[in-house]
Batch of 2 targets.
Target 1
Amino acid sequence: MSNLPQNALPWHRREDTWAIFIALGLVLAVSAAFFLGASRAVAAAALAIPTWSGSLGAVASALRAQPAAPVALLLVFLLAFSSASAVLGWDVVKYAAGFALLFAVSLVVAVLGSNQTLKDWQLETPLLALLLGMALGNAAALPAWFQSALRTEFYVKVGIVLMGATLPFTIILQAGPLAIAQATLVAVTTFAAIYLAATRLFGLDPRFGATLGAGGSICGVSAAIAIGGACRAEKSHVSVAISMVIVWAVAMIFALPVAARHLGLAAGPAGAWIGTSEFADAAGFAAAAALGDERAVKTFTLMKVVGRDMFVGVWALVVAFLSVTVWERKAAARAERVGAGEVWRRFPKFILGFFAASALVTAILASVDARIGTRFSKEALGPIKTLRGWAFTWTFLSIGFTTRFRELTRFGWKPLAAFALGVAVNVPLGWWLSTRVFASYWLAVK
Amino acid sequence: MVDHLTLVTAERGLARCRARELAAALAELGFERRPGRDDEAFGSTRVEAGAAKRQLLARGFEDREFRIVLEYVRQWGVL
């Protein structure tokens, strides 16, 4: 049975709406608890696993210090996500059971990912979650009730809105234009490379070329879906473009952090490079988080969310116009009309929550004195970062569990070659811009 | 990997009789009237946008008489 696009649903039944509600609700609740002197209650649910080596003594001590934390953390998110699932039309009982198991797996992964030896091998929580998920998901058939809790998009949206709370609006305003400039340069170049290779070199349909180009240059699967819809690409072509994105995105989760370390890149430029050259939000967060430095996650977010994701609607408008005029060989005056509403229709709405969370926290910090601001950063933003970390861990596990390589659509060598050519343009160009041309800006993001 | 919804609306200002003909043609193609603010919207989760347009043009409709919106949505488990 078909599932309906978000725009066809009432606002309260959209995944983006609930991701915003839940994440902003958490930010408001944590902030209110701080000002009401109840930060300890919040800390009780923000379970943080300390780094350990040898025996599990440090982890046991941390759990003894906050014995209710795992249960409180589970209950907070179980309640929030299950409420959302009821409205979104998922089977609540199956979802709740599945999420409880996903949570249990995430605890194990977080404990393992905090081991010093595994960290030394660069196997921190994000990569461990992916590897474990992929190994289990590809080796065994997962029960349906567990599958219902594997909601990569939902968790990453919650994580991105929470990310907004930890990224001051002033940084977005300062670095935003630069991120947009860098992202636009790379996106236009990569799109053109893939589109021209697909249509001129390999003779593929222009709509197919545009969908492939969007997947490789704008924002991965979301862009392939948005641009494929805007230019009315065939369903089979959209599936091929998605397969391309998944194959390359998963490869880049492992390749980009390794390359960044090998090249000795500082966290800021490395995050910006991943933001420029990774293909999907969830995969990119995994790659940026694998560097183990908050600055990399911040610059990644600025590049990916502010620089790239935001503009998918504009791309859709342009491609929709090209589709009904150039590709249908019709003069604009005779062609089907394309409305400017296309920009809003394809805009990823959860980004509004990201900006709202950032603006809210920035307003709070601007309205209190420096001493309280420092305390707020520690006692409120600290737990929010921890909660964000859990949302991303569920994202990475969900990517792993749902990435079934044998189920990827057969794609043939032509789209693969066109996409690979785009990758060959995108990755070095992103590296050059992030580490040479704009390095000082990315180094300045703290 | 994706599901889709093809939505067709009569272009604003289209003569009523022509809009009725468009509605009839869309119903014949398997489109259903969708409840909402715009009562001229017809949707299908089976007919792809390209096919819908070809069919409408073949039935004598002009590009400027209708507007097609195609939306894809991920199936479960797609990154």
Note: DSSP finds two helices and four strands in chain B.
Target 2
Amino acid sequence: MKDKFLKVRMFGVVAEKTGESSLDIPFVIDTKQLTALLFEKYPQLDGIKFALAVDKQIVHENIPLHEGAEVALLPPFSGG
Amino acid sequence: MDMERFERQIILPELGKKGQQKLQSAKVLVVGAGGLGSPAILYLAAAGVGTIGIADGDCVTTTNLNRQILFGHNDVGSPKASVAARFIADRFPDIQIEAYQEYLTVENIPVILPKYDLVIDGSDNFSTRYMLNDASVLFGKPLVYGAIYRFEGQIALFNAGKESANYRDLYPQIPTPGEITNCSEAGVLGVLPGIIGTLQATEAIKWIAEIGESLINKVLFCNLKDHSFYEIDLVPNEDAQKNRPKTLEVFLKTDYSVDCLTVADIGWKEALVSSNPKSSVFIDIREPDEMPRWSNSQCLEIPYGELEEKAELFSEETSVFLFCQHGIRSRPAAVELRKILRRNSIYSVTGGVEHPDSPVKQLI
């Protein structure tokens, strides 16, 4: 049986710091655990600000994740 | 206006004469005549938007020219707002153009914004973005948001009608300086703001002429590197909106200054080319006994420690170039002055007096 996983998409400075724009990671139950896992895996993200979208919907609070959910890390851009 | 000019768009059933009339009576304010503002202004004017306001307090520099397509080599040193206004007025004399040669502040926004129906955010810093967002909500103006980073862009239509999300619903709070990693030094592919600014003009035209689906409660992310678009949904969020001033009185007292800790370094060559004697000044921030001195009428001598108290001597100048002996003191001085004067056109001249390109030479 295939392991449960989550799809993570990274944008802007987040993608630049991690060197990844898209990756699959083992399933965790909510967004809080997911960000904790990502900060552990990529300590270079420390201090980087980003918004979270789960299945293309912006979330401001910790929410439960389902198997195969797509989570996007969306940092603000200021350039013009 | 000569309607023949718009024939190719009037024959679109979705636009028609009615849509063209809406464009003609529309008043759009473009904040920032830079990478995003340039294409946005051009397409709005070409499409026949009747009144266009252009707000920018900056002057053209050589490094702008890879992306700010309203400007060319001969414009370096001139104010962006008036150059942009002239460019449009020369081509489309039937359009009302208003140039605001100033940076937006909590004081001038309440005077300027109410004159317009829609605002385009083509600014290049978080202070202006949050200030403009909050003001748009306060004055009930739809805001076409656009922002760029290296190869990526974001576009949205905020505050367009009831139950329409705004920037605070995406990023509730203004970042602290420590959270801002890159500003003007981040690098950008010149064509990127061309695409994002053009998409902003598209959203503005669609909203005014009531065509198609607007990017309301959505944010579109675009990446030129892998030609991908990523659209996310946004909903108004009560908690996020708590960070926004709800009345004009509170807005006027809100401090939007954050700005980058990254310094705007500028080389002597570019500083000298960009400097316009009428609107810019060099400031020697060294102590009076440091040699050699520069005898130049465009140069003030104000030691570092006195900069803040004497800021009124140069606060009206469009561009301020600070220099010291080696370019070490002028960097933090530029950061401090940017915070005090709340604008980004304050630069630290790299290498200072000792730099090989420096015009300040020991008399032999």
Note: The first strand of chain A starts at residue 5 and ends at 10.
